[in-house]
Amino acid sequence: MTSYSLGSLLGIDELLWCASRVDPDDSIWIPETWGMECMGMISAVSHRSPCRRIGSSILNVYSRSPAALAMGAATLDTLSGGRFVLGLGASSPAIVQGLHGMKYERPVRRVRECVEIVRMALEGGRIDYAGEVYDLRGFSLLVRPPRRSIPVYLAAVNPGMMRLAWEVADGVILYLRPPGEIRDTLRAMGGRRINVACQIITAVSRDAPAAYERARRTLAFYVSVGAVYREFLAAHGYAEQTRSIHSEYRRGGLEAARRAVPDAMLHSLTACGTPRECAAAIGEFAAAGVDEPILQFNPVGDVSESFELLRRVLD
User: Model's pTM, two decimal places?
Assistant: First the structure.
């Protein structure tokens, strides 16, 4: 059983081909940033792939209303035959304000209320909700999905969203966290049991240096343009490294930033190299308490050959 994140490094046809190749007990997660629209892709994947679960990783709660998210979730759960997982998150100011033109305000409160409204809507009753962010009156969904309770996962970086995930969600989606930090954080959370997923930048090749550089480039990108990840990593042992990467990005672009990613940081945060190296790295995340490692596919060379090699990593 393997989970894959198939997204921005693939074209639509490539993504659908990869989705068709997975095993029936695998899971597929589809991201959304400023490329492919997630719900449309999940609909297409549901008709092409035999996988047991298809999730969004993630839909942000600013660009769609809770009602739109509930309608989408109900529709996708129907189209997929009860396989959909609704992954939600607050995204970042860069995307919410820069791309969608909305104010990035009260992210934790907004996610909380969104989850409450979506759950109420999917249960099939009339929605009357007076919150601090949303005020909804007198609607109910006309579509009835196969399940009245669709799993909800929350993307979490900072402590407030982590606590919210443990309070209201069925699972949490982590990203760019070293195994040691994950272990410490999970020990501190305690409380109710939820599924812990972690999306891991994964680049596999029999040519290990080529895989290292593919993963290094992706890591450099997220540190350079993702302030939330840069700040989190800086606060957890990577202050000098993130400062250097970001400085090089501003000075010379992504290629300069890639060269600034040190080996130790690369191998702590990603799974890259030969199949054996990738399997060992993924095992470290599992040992830290990750229930569901989500392998973020970073193709090395030919997409089809690279994905077939990735599929064998955890065999």
Answer: 0.96
